[in-house]
Write a structure and sequence with these properties.
2 domains, alpha+beta, 12 helices, 5-stranded antiparallel sheet
Length: 400
């Protein structure tokens, strides 16, 4: 069942709300917004293109590689082709004011036989472009959002029919409401109260405990919880980029993960002194280990996140990180990401955050950012600097 014309227009409204909310600076006529989309999402991209033109913004539409093209690239590209940037790409990224990405994959496992080292090399080469956008976002000149468009491939890998998958997207993004943007604004305000509560604590470390998790995470100095900021539609998670050096214990991802055309299941990680010292997976073990050795920061934590089930209506595995990291269900979810941290979680002026400061504060740097989701019943305790312990998350909800 495809999204109806009415749903597509509501989806566009929600995405434009997200784009405007995600940027700290205001959009103005003449700004440049890049629309990246996979081929099945053309109809939604067309609506967004039309809306942005009507706002006086200059949209640039760019279709993604097909699965066949992407597989050909990683099979046949030589060393120079793997790191090639088209002429003008750096200049374009240095001028962008916004970006909307519509994820609509026609295949999830088309790269499973490709060399992970070649995939990693290409990702590392594009890290410089990502850093341009990060810096522009820190100065308020750039904002971004993204979403998922239902495809047969996504539905198949989630063990759902296309109609069921589409219904999950409609529910999760509030496309069944009269005004999705208004609903998102309400959640934005409610999440703001929780973030204020979390950020009012002087925390030494967080202790996450479930049947298969026993992990301590040190938030570090000058940190703040962020989330529900418009960056993702849907997004219900609240998260922080901790001081990677204070991570100790073991973590388990009971949600499967599709990454770089590979399927990975039941990841177990052991951290000592902030670094992954042991990793296993029931499926994709070798791929996981290769990813974690992509660069120096790939085996360190870049994010810790919690989702309140009272916000999220997602109750099925969706074979898509955007939805799975925002899973509500019975117990909500937590996830960690290995790899790159988010400078937005710096509690200060992000433009003052130099590379040297990031390093001294324990913000992790990597070309990797891999979200690993756990949906088990869990308790998260904040151990305060004065020695007191406060339960901040239990039974899938924040305890404020």
């Amino acid at each position: 069942m495809p999204l109806t014309h009415d749903c597509l227009n509501k989806y566009a409204e929600a995405l434009l709300w997200g784009l405007m909310k995600a940027r700290t600076g205001r959009f103005k006529r003449g700004d440049i917004v890049l629309i990246r989309y996979d081929a099945p999402a053309l109809r939604l991209a067309e609506i967004l293109y039309d809306r942005l033109l009507g706002m006086g913004i200059n949209p640039i539409a760019r279709a993604g590689l097909s699965a066949t093209m992407e597989r050909s690239f990683f099979e046949k590209a030589n060393g120079s082709q793997l790191v090639f940037h088209p002429p003008g790409e750096t200049e374009l990224y240095g001028s962008l004011n916004g970006s909307i990405f519509i994820y609509a994959p026609e295949s999830l496992t088309h790269l499973k036989d490709c060399d992970p080292k070649k995939i990693a090399r290409s990702l590392i080469a594009r890290k410089a472009l990502r850093e341009i956008l990060d810096r522009r976002e820190e100065t308020g000149e750039f904002g971004w959002t993204l979403c998922t468009f239902p495809t047969t491939e996504l539905a198949k890998n989630a063990n759902l029919s296309l109609a069921q998958y589409t219904e999950q997207i409609i529910k999760a993004c509030f496309l069944d409401s009269d005004n999705p943007a208004s609903t998102w604004e309400t959640i934005y305000k409610e999440a703001g109260a929780i973030k204020k509560w979390l950020n009012g604590m002087d925390v030494s470390y967080y202790h996450i405990q479930s049947e298969n998790i026993d992990l301590r995470i040190k938030p570090g100095a000058k940190r703040r919880w962020i989330g529900v900021s418009g960056h993702n539609i849907p997004s219900f998670e609240l998260f922080v980029s901790p001081d990677w050096r204070g991570t100790e214990g073991h973590y388990f991802a009971n949600q499967p993960s599709f990454r770089s055309g590979n399927y990975v299941e039941q990841i177990r990680l052991v951290f000592e002194k902030g670094c992954v010292v042991s990793s296993t997976a029931s499926t994709g073990k070798d791929f996981t280990r290769q990813q974690l050795s992509m660069d120096k920061g790939a085996g360190r934590i870049g994010e810790f996140s919690l989702t309140d089930r009272r916000f999220s209506r997602i109750d099925r595995f969706m074979a898509d990180t955007l939805f799975d990291e925002n899973y509500g269900g019975r117990w909500g979810n937590c996830h960690i990401a290995v790899g790159a941290s988010f400078s937005e979680t710096y509690d200060g002026n992000p433009t003052d955050l130099t590379k040297a400061m990031k390093k001294s504060l324990g913000f992790n740097d990597s070309a990797l950012h891999w979200d690993m989701v756990n949906t088990e019943d869990k308790i998260v305790t904040a151990r305060l600097s004065d020695g007191k312990a406060i339960t901040i998350y239990e039974n899938g909800i924040f305890c404020c």
